[in-house]
């Protein structure tokens, strides 16, 4: 049985490392993502965010910190754990927290966000993280019963422009208007970005690309050298 309050309080002020690789990349193997997660924990990560059942299962076996699991289906519209069945599978694979699309867009299985969250809570003891794109998404997710909210989709839906770094304006809106713990995620590329997000009121900070995606990190350097 998950002690939800202890789990959430244990993440406060910490770094969550997102260990994901894109399709077709050489690092897209569960064993590699598991080792990436283990390295992140050694570095001080308080939790891991991971995608795909095989990755989640192996990471669950090899790290002791909580895991935020998700299942990406496609790349457009509602693709982050888009249905209830995807969410339940992620939890069965070992995630203590399941991240779902928390926007107000129509879901593939026809369920509302509220129906999805209620079913997850009825059938499991996992927490639900709503990945949102704007304040209205977040408020709707809170009313629907989400346990946590993350700014993951800021700039990736049509409701807000995509900022160069983290969307600090949205983060300020979320922390000012929600009772739920707010996780900052999206384009957090430096330790300074992470610190600013925490100072803006984020419960915890999620960083992926800047830590676990060497192709992009390399491109940042090569682009700087060829300007």
Question: Would you write up a description of this structure?
Answer:
The protein has 227 residues and is α/β, with parallel strands linked by helices. The protein has one domain (10-225): TIM Barrel (Alpha-Beta Barrel), CATH 3.20.20.70. Helices cover 43% and strands 15% of the residues. It has ten helices and eight strands. The protein has an eight-stranded parallel barrel with strand order 1-2-3-4-5-6-7-8, surrounded by seven helices. Strand 7 (182-185), helix 8 (191-199) and strand 8 form a beta-alpha-beta unit. Helix 2 (30-42) crosses helix 3 (53-62) and helix 5 (113-123) crosses helix 6 (135-144). The protein is globular. 42% of the residues are buried. Belongs to the NanE family. Keywords: Carbohydrate metabolism, Isomerase.
Question: H/E order of the elements?
Answer: HEHEHEHEHEHEHEHEHH
How many helices? The count is: 10
Q: Write the CATH fold name.
A: TIM Barrel
Proportion of residues in extended strands: 15-25%
What do we call the CATH homologous superfamily? Aldolase class I
Rounded average pLDDT:
97
Annotation, overall tally of beta strands: 8
Helix residue percentage: 40-55%
Indicate the overall shape.
Answer: globular
- Adjacency order of strands in the biggest sheet: 1-2-3-4-5-6-7-8
Spatial gap, N to C terminus: 54 Å
Class based on secondary structure composition and strand pairing: alpha/beta
Q: pLDDT under 50 segments (min length 5)?
A: none
CATH A-level architecture: Alpha-Beta Barrel
Number of domains: 1
Name the CATH class: Alpha Beta
Major sheet description: 8 strands, parallel, barrel
EC number: 5.1.3.9
GO cellular component, one term: cytosol
Keywords: Carbohydrate metabolism, Isomerase
Protein name: Putative N-acetylmannosamine-6-phosphate 2-epimerase
């Amino acid at each position: 049985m998950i002690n939800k309050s202890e789990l959430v309080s244990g993440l406060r002020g910490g770094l969550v490392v997102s260990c994901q690789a894109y399709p077709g990349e050489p690092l897209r193997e569960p064993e590699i993502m598991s080792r990436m997660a283990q390295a992140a924990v050694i570095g001080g990560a308080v939790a891991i965010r991971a995608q795909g059942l095989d990755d989640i299962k192996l990471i669950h076996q090899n790290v002791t910190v909580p895991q935020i699991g998700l299942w990406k289906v496609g790349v457009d519209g509602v693709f982050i754990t888009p249905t209830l069945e995807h969410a339940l599978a992620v939890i069965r694979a070992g995630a203590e927290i399941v991240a779902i699309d928390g926007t107000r867009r129509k879901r593939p299985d026809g369920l509302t966000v509220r129906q999805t969250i209620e079913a997850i809570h009825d059938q499991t003891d996992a927490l639900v993280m709503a990945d949102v794109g704007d304040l209205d998404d977040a408020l709707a997710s809170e009313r629907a019963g989400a346990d946590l909210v993350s700014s993951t989709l800021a700039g990736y839906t049509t409701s807000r422009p995509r900022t160069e770094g983290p969307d600090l304006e949205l983060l300020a809106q979320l922390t000012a208007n929600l009772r739920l713990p707010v996780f900052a995620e999206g384009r957090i590329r430096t330790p300074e970005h992470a610190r600013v997000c925490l100072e803006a009121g984020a419960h915890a900070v999620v960083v992926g690309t800047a830590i676990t995606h060497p192709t992009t990190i390399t491109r940042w350097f090569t682009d700087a050298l060829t300007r």
